[in-house]
Design a protein that fits this description.
The structure holds two protein chains of two kinds.
Chain A: H1 3-37, H2 52-98, H3 103-121
Helix pairs in contact in A: 1-2, 2-3
Chain B: H1 2-44, E1 47-49, H2 53-78, H3 82-106, H4 117-149, H5 159-184, E2 187-189
Parallel strand pairs in B: 1-2
Helix pairs in contact in B: 1-4, 1-5, 2-3, 2-5, 3-4, 4-5
The chains are: A mainly alpha, B mainly alpha.
Chain lengths: ~130, ~190
């Protein structure tokens, strides 16, 4: 087996491992998200009032509550996705350093991480917005 | 009615100004951290001291996870989920403490001392200044947690939470550049005492 084959096998091994870690992390964090945030949307049983008017109000409140839960769950999932991206980039950065990638490439990876943090965690695009648009 | 409208307009204007002020503060802080990075590249060049790589990646991942929990706390407050807000803030502060222990309790107890020339000076300067910001961030989080516990914030009005979250993410952002600069870039040099 020549050195190029060994190099190829090592690179394939690293890529498969990164993908494996990313998928495992995604599954674990998603489950954690559901556990911590109560992210699963369970529709409550239909136990509303019999009166038509009261029932309309009750249904409206229930729909609003479900919509709010869905929004919250979506926002939590975005946070999980951002964490996965940052973790993958950190692993790539660490591996890139161990195979002697140039400093420019390392700075580019750091810049990618910075953009993700600025946009999704620090809401940089909403500095000029009035009110709470986060 | 117009008084109410004026009050709403004033509150929105105030929030916009608060955000602008916070970001101006970050710009001024950026000069400090860019200065430290410039010192690192000028004095170390394409070399770096022999540091514990495992410790470096562990503290980095801890800080990333703490940022995730801070984002969760802010999101929870925006949507009125007070319990998740309080829990997530405590987890964030706890992870911040673990990060501090990793840097100050382990990295600073390694073989490199502050008096070891450019390597010691830059390493302790960068990690020390960052650790100071982490420490102030933890204090900030605990103040916000206490205020939140006493019902000072709600889904409509929570500037304190937003400012605290953005500050914590800023501390994480700084480490995004410090980590590769200290631990990953350049060839390893064994520091002589």
């Amino acid at each position: 087996m020549d050195s190029s084959m060994i190099f190829g096998a090592v690179i394939a091994f690293i890529i498969i491992n990164i993908l494996g870690i990313a998928v495992t992390l995604a599954v674990v964090l998603y489950q954690l998200n559901v556990l911590i945030a109560g992210g699963s949307l369970v529709v409550p049983p239909d136990t509303g009032p019999a009166d038509a008017l009261e029932r309309m109000v009750w249904q409206k409140e229930r729909d609003e509550s479900l919509a709010n839960k869905a929004r919250l769950s979506g926002a939590y999932r975005t946070g999980v996705m951002v964490l996965i991206w940052l973790s993958v980039l950190t692993i790539v950065e660490f591996l890139a350093s161990s195979i002697g990638v140039s400093n420019i490439a390392m700075i580019l990876i750091a810049l990618m991480k910075a953009v993700v943090i600025l946009q999704f965690f620090m809401h940089v695009s909403s500095i000029w917005l009035e009110g709470d648009k986060h | 009615m117009s008084t109410l409208n004026n009050s709403i307009q004033e509150a929105r204007f105030q929030l916009k100004n608060n955000r602008l002020g916070l970001w101006l503060f970050f710009v001024s802080e950026a000069f400090l951290f860019i200065g430290l990075l410039a010192a690192r590249f000028y004095l170390w060049g394409n070399t770096r001291p022999d540091l514990d790589q495992n410790l470096g990646i562990i503290v980095t991942v801890i800080l990333l996870i703490s940022s995730f929990y801070m984002n969760r706390a802010e999101t929870a407050m925006v949507h009125g989920d007070r319990q998740t807000f309080l829990t997530s803030l405590l987890v964030t502060a706890g992870l911040g403490v673990v990060f501090l222990v990793g840097v100050v309790g382990f990295e600073w107890q390694g073989h490199i001392r502050p008096q070891d020339g450019a390597f010691g000076a830059v390493l302790y300067g960068m990690t020390g200044m960052h650790a100071l910001h982490v420490l102030s961030g933890i204090v900030f989080i605990l103040i916000v947690w206490n205020n939140g516990r006493n019902g000072h914030y709600n889904s409509e009005s929570h500037w304190g939470v937003e400012a605290c979250a953005i500050y914590w993410h800023y501390v994480d952002l700084v480490w995004v550049f410090f980590y590769p600069a200290i631990y990953l870039m350049g060839t390893v040099v064994h520091v002589a005492h």
